[in-house]
Structure formats: C-alpha cells, structure tokens
Design a protein that fits this description.
The chain is an all-alpha fold. It has one domain: Glycosyltransferase (Alpha/alpha barrel), CATH 1.50.10. Helices cover about 35% and strands about 0% of the residues. The protein is built from 15 helices and five strands. A two-stranded antiparallel ribbon has the order 2-5. A two-stranded antiparallel ribbon has the order 3-4. Helix 4 packs parallel to helix 6, helix 8 packs parallel to helix 10 and helix 9 packs across helix 10. It is globular and about 55 Å long. The two termini are about 15 Å apart. The N terminus and C terminus are likely disordered. This is Terpene cyclase/mutase family protein. InterPro entries: Terpenoid_cyclase/PrenylTrfase. Keywords: Membrane, Signal, Transmembrane, Transmembrane helix.
Length: about 450
C-alpha cells in the first residue's frame, strides 16, 4: 500500500510503477500517464504535483483530504486516508465519506477525480481499477455501504482481462500492481478471488498475478521477484511490484493484521524443486508470496534496510514509499522479525517524506505501523494519526476499534465498522510506494 504510499492507476502502455508515482503522464497516459509516465514511477500515485492542475484555480471540494490537485489521485488518497483512520479507531467525518461515495459512477466504477459528481459518467470518464479497488477496501471497512461495494466489485469483475489480471485502465494489458489491488478489494469485500475467472480464458486473478513472477528461468538473485509488466519479452524485477504482489498472492488488502515482531521464521527463497518456480502462472500463491518476501529481504539487506528509487538519475536515492510497501508485505507474510530493521529505518527517515506527500503517505505509514505492531501515534517521534487527521476534515470521533467489527460483504451485507501519477517532479524528489502512488513501476528493484 499496499504502499506505502504508492497508488495510482495505470496506463495503456507498459507501465512503470514509480512506486507508483508518476505513472504516466497525464495524457500519455492518462492512464499510462499515471503509471508510466514517471518512467516507471508510480502505480498508485499520490498527490499530483504535475503541471497545470485542473483545479489549481478552484477551491477544492469539502471533505477531501489533502491540498494538492486531486485530478489523478483524489479517490486513491481519500480511500487510504479513510481506511487508515478506521484501522486506528478514528471515525472519519461524514463529509469525507460522502465525498468518496459521491465519486462513484452509476456502473460502479470510480475515476481518480470527478469535479462535478452531479454530472453522470460517460464514455470519456477515465474509470480506474486502482481507484475503484482502493474505494472498495475503504467502504467495506467503514461498513454501511454494501450497495456501493457490490456495484464496484461487479464492475471490477466485468473488466478482468483474459489472462486473469487487470490493468489500471480497462482495455490495457494487465500489470502486477493493479491485479494485486483488485485481489485485495475482492477479498476485503468478502469475496473469494480464486473463484473469479475471466470470461475469455477462464483464468483466475492468482494465475494472472503469478504470470509476472520471475521463476527458475531468471538469474538466481532475481528469482521470486515480480515484474510490473513484461518489457521486450522479458520480466524485469521490480521491488514495488514485488511488494504489491506479495500482498495480492496472500489475498490481502492494505490492512494487515499485526505480525509477531519476535517471529524468527526465515523467509524462504523461491525453490526450483517440484515445479514451485514455474513461470506459467500455475504455481502456489502462498509460495510465490514467500519467494517475493525473500527477494525483498535480500534487496533491503543489500541497500542498508531500505529500497532504492527506480527514477532515472535517482537510482541511489532511498525510496521511502517502496520501503514501506516492503515492510507491509513482510508483515503480511508473518515475517515480523524481518520487518523490524526496515521499520526502524522508516521511523528515522519517513517523517519529512510523509509531510511532503500528504494524506496517502501518512495513511501508508499508519497502515505499516498497524501491521508491524508499532505505535502510529509515536512513529519515530511523529504522531501519524494526528498528522493524517490534519490533512482533512475534523474526524467525527475516535474510539478503540471493535474486536470483531462487521464488514461489508460482496453481497452487500454489512454493519458498522470502520496508483496515480504523482507528479514527476514529486516523484524524483521522494520515493513513493505502491500504496501511495497507485502502483505501477517499470524498472527497479
């Protein structure tokens, strides 16, 4: 988050997640823009810091988190903010929840931002699976939005590609990040991702996701990693895509139950015995997640307990967002001990990054703290919860989360409970993970 602040939709060409940062330039992408634009920057983007913001001269809508142009990441950052607040027992403002639900199209999809929700979505509305998947996770967690969740899930299923996966923009080739986000959404809504098969091909989301894994044909040090998308017939290992895929392969969304930080079970690198390292997408998702975690641990150890930026010219720069994504993935895999050192690195180095990147970044760190058993109200000296609350409308209240909160299900039953292109300039100055920016990277490890 997924990760963490990488969030952003993808675009039509082969995308590059920049931690999902600048995913594709706005037009190039519009979809691709978000993901690929940044030359592989972000798949889930966060605040768009690009040029000529559509809302630059307009007052931002009430209830929206953040002060930057929401054109490419409005729904994404709003969803992560609401999800993070719910996770730590904060009851979001009604206006914030209403803003999110008001962004949904009649067919169930969400675009990154609709300036005038009263105007119906049409064929030109850029519907986005990443934004929709994030919204599903937030609304399912909050409870009471069963109809909206059900419609969104139905739309996601309707745009599944024949290979079993998803792209950020319907009609484009699948990518690992978007597929992982949708898997998380399906699971969060109470569904079983493994039962969802593509109309053409009959493939499951897990088959689609594992098709991006580097198996026994790859170099030994790259085995277990995931690529964002194939490039020139090859699968380049991508750390952000690997972190996203590790969550997706376990059928998990952005909220991960706290891992035992004292667990000393070693991560197990992908083995080429008994077909576990097959490259046909038919492998075991759990083993694939384990192999992905092993790849991430190797990269973290290699770089001093943080991941490096994939941005051209900034390859030696620490990537805070992707490091957060990796920590979340390790916690999801039950590797609490392995997550501790990179977590400590985040506690020392993430505050300024989060302040620059706003609500999605704070939310990502809150989710990381929750997953690792750290205190989000004292994270390296920063009260992440207060900082996140300060980026949006005043919360309606705060209470300890219920031990067994009801959640919306895919069938619409629910109770009460709780990657886009960030600008290229922003992307270059700060690392952004798949949760923050939207997910989508191209190269990079």
């Amino acid at each position: 988050m997924a990760p963490m602040a990488s969030l952003a939709p993808v675009a039509p060409q082969a995308a590059t997640p920049f931690a999902v940062l600048a995913r594709r330039t706005v037009t190039a992408c519009a979809v691709a823009a978000v993901l690929g634009a940044a030359a592989a920057p972000a798949a889930f983007a966060t605040p768009a810091a690009g040029s000529a913001p559509a809302t630059a001269s307009k007052k931002l809508p009430g209830g929206l988190y953040g002060t930057k142009d929401p054109q490419y990441d409005g729904v994404w950052r709003q969803s992560l903010a609401l999800l993070a607040q719910d996770t730590v027992g904060v009851r979001p403002a009604t206006s914030a929840v209403d803003w999110l639900t008001g962004q949904q199209c009649a067919d169930g999809a969400f675009a990154a931002f609709r300036a005038d929700p009263a105007t119906a979505c049409d064929a030109k509305t850029m519907r986005d699976t990443n934004q929709t998947g994030a919204a599903v996770q937030a609304l399912a967690a909050l409870g009471g939005h069963g109809d909206a969740v059900k419609k969104a899930v139905a739309w996601l299923k309707s745009v599944q590609n024949g290979d079993g996966g998803w792209s950020s923009m319907p009609g484009s080739p699948s990518d690992a990040n978007s597929t992982a986000v949708v898997i998380g959404a399906l699971a969060s809504a109470g569904g079983k991702p493994e039962t969802v098969t593509s109309e053409k091909g009959g493939r499951t989301p897990y088959e689609g996701l594992l098709a991006f894994r580097l198996g026994c044909d790859a170099k030994e040090e790259e085995r277990g990693a995931f690529a964002f998308q194939p490039q020139k017939g090859a699968l380049p290992p991508n750390a952000d895509a690997t972190a996203a895929a590790a969550l997706g392969a376990l059928g998990k969304g952005f909220v991960v139950e706290p891992a035992n930080k004292h667990a000393d079970a070693k991560v197990k690198p992908l083995t080429c015995k008994d077909g576990q390292g097959s490259d046909d997408g038919k492998g075991d998702p759990g083993q694939a997640a384990e192999g992905a975690d092993a790849y991430l641990v190797a990269q973290l150890d290699k770089n001093g307990q943080h991941l490096l930026s994939a941005m051209p010219g900034a390859e030696k720069q620490p990537d805070v967002g992707n490091t957060a994504d990796a920590v979340l993935a390790l916690a999801a895999g039950g590797h609490g001990a392995a997550a501790q050192q990179p977590l400590e690195w985040l506690e020392k180095n993430a505050a300024d990054w989060a302040e620059r990147n706003g609500p999605a970044a704070y939310a990502q760190l809150v989710l990381v703290a929750h997953a690792t058993g750290a205190d989000p109200r004292s994270f390296g000296g920063t009260d992440l919860v207060a900082a996140l609350n300060g980026t949006g409308p005043e919360p309606a209240g705060s209470a300890e989360p219920s031990a067994t909160p009801e959640k919306d299900t895919e069938d619409g039953e629910g109770g009460i409970g709780l990657w886009w292109v960030i600008g290229i300039g922003l992307a270059i100055g700060a690392g952004i993970g798949f949760l923050l920016s939207g997910r989508n990277k191209k190269n990079g490890r």
